[in-house]
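Bumping with the actual sequence this time:
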Amino acid sequence: MKIVVCGGSNSIDKDGYVPLLEERLAGRHEVENVSIGAAPSIMGAYRSKFAADFEPGDLLIWEYALNDMNHIDLKGYNEDLLLRFLEYQIRFCANRKLHFLPVILTPRPREQSHGLDSYRSRLLYMFSHYGVRPFEVSHSFRQANGITRIGAEHFNGTSHFAARGDVVQFVARGIADRVETGVLDIPQRALPLFVTRSAMVGFYSHFTGGSRSRFANRRLSIAAWDPEDGELVFDGFKHAGRLTSVAVLAAPDGGVMDLTVDDRSLRVALSHDERGFGRPMLKVLTLENLLHEPLAVSPGSRFAARWADSAENVLEDMGFKGKDTGPEHRNARIVGLIVEENA
């Protein structure tokens, strides 16, 4: 059985739970990590479907709950939007006969509060609906250690856990125990809660205009597009649905772009705000969050991107910033369009 990990920065930390899990399962199970940090479940749905190869019976580990909580708390993301993209992943696993293990980590501010919040309650209800037993780390760790909350000494900041500390050791051990004892679930086929039966996640990454290059690092290798002095265009939508997000390579000096979808236009910042990280990073720019409503597309719809000549009325999604528009600041790239299609 291959294990594919798809989560946030806690899943790519070199001193986090994944290396410890690999040590525990060495020689018995292959572990592939397609995680991307500083992104919500929309990234997870894209990466798990388009960046990993599965066979029936493989395991997908989902670890985007903490990131989703941060996007809700810090940037006002709609819970329904994030739960939709989680549901796409669950239904993908059900259709492909894949085991699905949600690993629920909690950011420190929420750990300090008491009781079930709305997002967590709905999250747990969804897992129950599909017959999936999550690994609820906060509850399990507190119960195992006889404490009422996970203290500050177990955290590194607000959203990460102490390097090779008690919590990450607990997570690695808990996942390994489930794998070794077979306590894993293939989601049941059930009526959808947040999506329609025919809806699925699509990804379009071939444009006309501009220029295409290749970006690669130790985590990914992807094509990336630059509008240059003209316009980057996609008009090949196959089905009616929503254009939810644009996958982009954000850069410290990414610049500002004007995006147009049919008769809707918006100006977006494409510089990432990761302090001390001077390289490009893959991120999702969520149009539905910026516009506060779905952006409908259909066959014949036209998406276009061009560099902006001003930062007036620029919109900043979570993890993005930027007011600079000069040519020397135009270092972000378009990777593709993430759509919800009614196929």
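The tokens above came from a reply further down the thread. The chain has nine helices and 20 strands.
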